[in-house]
């Protein structure tokens, strides 16, 4: 027991010994084999033992003692970890994409649940605490206070979303589709490119493979929607160029060439202006 105390958050151990109300947690701790040795394991134990208590009370207790909230916990896997392909920094699954989040034909904003491994370990304590306080404020119908707390969460790059009648804490990511360049919104066919991407991703959950970050702080990645490679769809429908300067994958050039031959999408024009040329010319102006 004392070896465990050395490894765990002292405030959590103090909670176990000093709270008469939750004496059963201490008993469960003693009987656990092996006993909790990390903050995540301790949080799972508390959540399981107190599952009949009010959700807000349990979350408030966990947040006060700096333990992860239930919806941010990553379930342990019995499978061996799968290594990512070369060049990929990390991957994640998004929540359903809001149509308003599709800025143009190659940029979207997505939200990722705090329970996703890439997010779970980095949620700031103050964001978790604000989420709990917001939940309590809404229960008391103190909506101005709840809105104030939600704005604090939003300012930190997170948001509480309602997914199938359940509130989910999520982190915002801006994604630049790797390897393609679509017409800018002000360019001819810009609106069509934006609408084309929208039709593919709206209200869908996406798998994102992130390769890096661009100068604007966006994640540069490959997107998959229900098994479909999004960039492939955009190129084959004539909604974007292969961005050869930043991506040498020849299969992207092949898909662009196919669309050119069929004269579909932007290729219906004999000589459409390239978006990188348009941006350069407009910067000069």
TrEMBL record:
Any Pfam family matching the protein: SNase
Every TNase-like domain range: 102-269
Gene Ontology molecular-function annotations: endonuclease activity; hydrolase activity
Residues in the signal sequence: none
Keywords: Endonuclease, Hydrolase, Nuclease
Keyword Hydrolase listed: yes
One GO location term (cellular component): cytoplasm
Protein's recorded name: TNase-like domain-containing protein
The organism of origin for this protein: Capsella rubella
């Amino acid at each position: 027991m004392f070896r465990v105390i050395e490894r765990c958050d002292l405030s959590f151990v103090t909670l176990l010994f000093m709270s008469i109300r939750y004496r059963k947690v201490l008993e469960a701790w003693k009987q656990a084999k092996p006993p909790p040795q990390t903050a995540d394991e301790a949080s799972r134990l508390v959540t399981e033992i107190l599952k009949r208590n009010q959700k807000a009370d349990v979350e408030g207790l966990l947040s006060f003692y700096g333990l992860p909230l239930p919806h941010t916990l990553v379930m342990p896997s019995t499978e061996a970890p799968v290594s990512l392909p070369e060049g990929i920094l990390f991957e994640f699954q998004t929540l359903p994409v809001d149509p308003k989040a599709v800025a143009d034909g190659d940029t979207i904003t997505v939200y990722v649940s705090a329970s996703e491994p890439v997010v779970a370990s980095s949620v700031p304590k103050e964001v978790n605490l604000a989420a709990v306080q917001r939940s309590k404020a809404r229960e008391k119908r103190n909506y101005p206070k709840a809105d104030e707390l939600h704005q604090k969460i939003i300012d930190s790059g997170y948001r509480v979303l309602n997914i199938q009648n359940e509130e989910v804490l999520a982190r915002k990511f801006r994604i630049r589709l790797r390897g393609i360049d679509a017409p800018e919104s002000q360019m001819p066919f810009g609106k069509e490119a934006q609408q084309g991407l929208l039709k593919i991703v709206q209200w869908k959950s996406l798998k994102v493979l992130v390769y890096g970050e661009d100068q604007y702080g966006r994640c540069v990645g490959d997107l998959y929607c229900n098994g479909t490679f999004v960039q492939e769809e955009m190129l084959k429908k004539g909604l974007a160029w292969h961005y050869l300067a930043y991506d040498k994958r020849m299969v992207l050039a092949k898909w662009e060439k196919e669309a050119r031959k069929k004269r579909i999408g932007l290729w219906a024009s004999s000589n459409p202006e390239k978006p990188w040329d348009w941006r350069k010319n407009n910067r000069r102006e």
